[in-house]
Amino acid sequence: MPPKARLTKTEIVSAALDIVRESGESALNARSLAGKLSCSTQPIFSNFENMDELKEEVERAAYGLYLEYTEREIASGEYPYYKSTGMAYIRFAKDEPELFRLLFMSSGQSSVPTMADSYLEESIIPVIAKNLGISKEEARTFHLEMWIFVHGIATMFATSYCDMDWGLVSEMTSDMYLAASEYIRRKKNDMQA
Asked: Which of 29, 162, 14, 21 is nearest to 97 (CA)?
C-alpha cells in the first residue's frame, strides 16, 4: 500500500476555513482540524508553527474570499463602484456569516485591518475624493461614516437579527450616500460663504 500523500498548507487552510464557515471561529482547533482532514495533528504542525499561524492564514483566505465578493459586485455593473463595495460587504455578511464574524466582528488580534487599510487607501479613498471633490482626509471621514452604516446592516445579516429585502438594502445605502454627500456639499458652501 503506498504511503498517504502529504497534506499541503493549502489543503489544511481550506479545511480550516470550512470548519470556521460551518461552526464558527471557536470550533477551529488542532483536534477538529485533524478530524476534518482524517489525520493526526502531526501534518498540521509540520506545516504551521502553531495554531495562531494557521488562524492567520485562515483569515487571509477568508479575506481573499471577501475581496472576490467585492470584485464580482463591481464587475456586475449593477451599482456604481463605491456602492458596489458596500453592497459586497453586506452580501458577504449575508452569505458567509461566520467568515464575516471572523474578519469584521472578532475582538482578537487580526491581520485583517492591515489588509483592509491597504485596499481602502489604494482603491476606495481616491474614488470618494474624486467623486465628491474633497481631500483624501475628508474622503476617509466620509468613508468611515458610510462604513459604520453599512457595517450595521451587514452585522444584522451576519447575526440573523433581520433579513431585509435586497432592494431595500440598496435603497437605504443610496439614501445614506446621498444624504452624506449633500451634507459635505452644504458644509463646503457654508465654509466658502
From this structure: 21
